[in-house]
Design goal:
119 residues, alpha+beta, six-stranded mixed β-sheet
């Protein structure tokens, strides 16, 4: 497993730990102008859950992949938090901003994988 895949797997585990849903992985590795290699997006039901998911992602990425984010933006309002891991960008949304910004359709050339929600 390469480093990007290892980090992505840890991020998804962190999201699932706090019941994040609608997880999408966008592989941007073939798009020259993309800001990173992978986008991971998910939805949380409340600002408190957004915060909990972000904390969980940080913990899982550090423990399982040995990675820390270079930057985290949006924590103050917890409607859309972006986490920059360099090769992987994570976006944790409340439902309304996720629908509005529709990031998974921003990159038409990307390979998009929708992960099933865990019960």
């Amino acid at each position: 497993m390469d480093k990007i895949q290892e980090l992505t797997t840890a991020i998804v585990a962190g999201i699932r730990e706090k019941k994040g849903r609608d997880i999408v992985i966008a592989d941007l590795s073939t798009i020259e102008t993309a800001p990173c290699k992978t986008f991971v997006l998910c939805t949380a039901g409340s600002p408190q859950q957004v915060d909990a998911v972000v904390d969980s992602i940080e913990e899982f990425a550090r423990k399982q992949a040995g990675e820390k984010p270079a930057a985290i933006c949006g924590r103050e309002n917890a409607e859309w938090v972006a986490m920059d891991y360099g090769t992987v960008m994570v976006h944790v949304f409340l439902p309304e901003p996720r629908d509005y910004y529709d990031l998974e359709h921003l990159w038409d050339d990307a390979n998009i994988e929708h992960l099933p929600d865990e019960l």
